[in-house]
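seq:
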Amino acid sequence: QVQLVESGGGLVQAGGSLRLSCAASGSTFSTYVMGWFRQAPGKEREFVAGISRSGVTILYTESVKGRFTISRDNAKNTVYLQMNTLKPEDTAVYYCAADRASRGLVVRTTAREYEYWGQGTQVSVSS
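struct:
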């Protein structure tokens, strides 16, 4: 089992940047595929970015490509999401999640496939 705690959210103007962090404890971090999801009011939770155990495979949803960067530091048990050129439509609660069952270098993009979740951090982008 793993516990996840996100930090780094806040209020920023359009065009600004934020860096989210997700610290993991309780198990072997490097055995988990890690993902970032977000949920805006009235919308379903959506995949934002994911990274395989070794960092070889990285996926992004189309709307954040070129603006967001996911990374992980297995020595620090932490996954990051660097968000640049933020837009008002990026406003949401951002969650990190851990997937242990994914095989090999596969990064899954469906929320129900991730077993563990953090409590979320609010990101608000003003226009």
